[in-house]
Amino acid sequence: MVFNVLSTTVLIESKSGLQECELQMNAATVEVELPIRHSWHKRITSLQNVPPIFKMVWEAAPGIVASSLLFRLTAGLVPIALLGITRRIIDAIYLVSSHQKPLIHGFWFLVALEFILAGLGVVLIFATRSSESGTRPT
Hints:
Layout: E1 6-14, E2 17-25, E3 30-33, H1 36-46, H2 50-60, H3 62-99, H4 107-133
Antiparallel strand pairs: 1-2, 2-3
Helix pairs in contact: 2-3, 3-4
């Protein structure tokens, strides 16, 4: 199905004055594209509100914030550790298949460690969610 698109430039009044915007309309939607500079400027200036919000949240529940940050940082390190272990496993398999060398010592330990870390990642995500919701896991 083909829609006839009508495109025109309009002036929109905002707090910072009149702005020229592109207006595109078709039978299904109406889209207004704001100038990129204005939207990025607004986003960057809104970051001023982040420190006071963090302070309020910390004052309300420092234990929950600390546990959430700890779980999130640990959960963020798990994929990096998995990447390193996976690389070593793939390198070992490559040596066996292409150079006819025996498996490296500790190969199966690496495989088991990868499974354990993958499980730990799932547990950490669950712990993060439950610490933020304030409920005990059932």
